[in-house]
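Lecture notes, part 5. Sequence design as translation. It can be helpful to think of inverse folding as translation between two languages: the language of shapes and the language of residues. The source text, in structure tokens, appears below.
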């Protein structure tokens, strides 16, 4: 990306502000710039998906590896079909059940989508987001938007405009404040180029809901080999600045012992808990997230951002329950904790 920018921050609280923010975002997108926009999952760093130079600016702003593909966001089935070389009946059924929403469908890449979007691969991930602002911008542009999360590569995804400003100030010209993201983690990614379809990245649309639409046709494991077909597949991803570890504990004393064994100091460590809640005074911060998968996903990244803001050297996260509704959260935490 050439040059650096002081981001302009625009609100969408009133109808007038919403319309002005849409117009401002569209102007920049039409010029080939990148802008940070709200979605229901996380904030995205958006550019014209049909413009290779604009997409390159996303990679530059994020420091994103060239082998990591970007999801294309659309507004409606007609636009989605134009981005894919094939549109199977399964795609229609899944779109009818889950779009607009946090589901990305991987399909053969259409000729309009440049290779830089798909990291040179022959497939493209397509999503129709549910956030009204993102929808309005895509409709006003008339072209799809490439939009990974609006953060430096492999770091915590942003769920508020403040998170974007903290992470990308000086790298992008415009941030739209659309409020806190209502889903809170990235979309489920489903590969329809294989039989049976396979989940490449779990999300809050979990396997049982997909199986209900697919009549049980869902691969147990995604295939391996070839170019990446989805973001979120790198071993280390979604990471806070502080080192993150996953632990179980029976008491505050047991938790302190776990922190010391991991090379940390309790007073310089943050704790994210949902069942065993230690006293706050013994640690740098104690965050409590409800033991409900949807509420936990909505709060997780925000709590990890808050832990980073304390300057802590270690974040200890209580292990989450098993079960399909927790699989996406467990995936994010496992990658965040990878060395």
């Amino acid at each position: 990306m050439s040059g650096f920018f002081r981001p302009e921050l625009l609100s969408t609280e009133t109808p007038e502000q919403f319309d002005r923010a849409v117009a401002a975002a569209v102007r920049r997108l039409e010029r080939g710039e990148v802008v940070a926009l709200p979605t229901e999952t996380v904030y995205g760093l958006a550019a014209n998906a049909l413009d290779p130079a604009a997409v390159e600016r996303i990679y530059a702003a994020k420091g994103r590896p060239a082998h990591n593909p970007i999801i294309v966001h659309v507004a409606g089935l007609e636009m989605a079909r134009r981005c894919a070389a094939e549109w199977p009946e399964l795609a229609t059924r899944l779109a009818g059940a889950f779009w607009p929403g946090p589901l990305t469908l991987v399909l053969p890449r259409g000729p309009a989508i440049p290779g830089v979007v798909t990291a040179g691969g022959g497939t493209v991930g397509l999503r129709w987001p549910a956030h009204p602002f993102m929808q309005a911008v895509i409709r006003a542009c008339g072209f799809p938007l490439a939009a990974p999360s609006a953060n430096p590569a492999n770091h915590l995804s942003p769920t508020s405009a403040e998170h974007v400003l903290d992470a990308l100030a000086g790298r992008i010209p415009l941030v739209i404040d659309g409020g806190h993201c209502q889903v809170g983690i990235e979309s489920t990614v489903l590969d329809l180029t294989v039989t049976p379809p396979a989940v490449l990245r779990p999300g809050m649309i979990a396997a049982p809901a997909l199986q209900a639409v697919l009549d049980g046709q869902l691969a147990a494991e995604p295939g391996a080999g070839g170019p990446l077909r989805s973001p979120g597949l790198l071993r280390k991803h979604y990471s806070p600045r502080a080192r993150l570890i996953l632990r179980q504990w029976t008491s505050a004393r047991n938790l302190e012992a776990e922190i010391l064994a991991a090379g940390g100091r309790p007073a310089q460590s943050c704790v994210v808990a949902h069942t065993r809640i230690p006293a706050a005074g013994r640690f740098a911060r104690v965050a409590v997230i409800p033991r409900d998968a949807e509420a936990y996903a909505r709060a997780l990244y925000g709590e990890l951002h808050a832990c980073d803001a304390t300057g802590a050297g270690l974040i200890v996260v209580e292990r989450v329950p098993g079960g399909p509704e927790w699989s996406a959260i467990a995936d994010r935490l496992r990658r965040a904790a990878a060395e």
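The translated text above is only one of many valid answers, since several sequences can fold into similar shapes. The mean pLDDT is 93.
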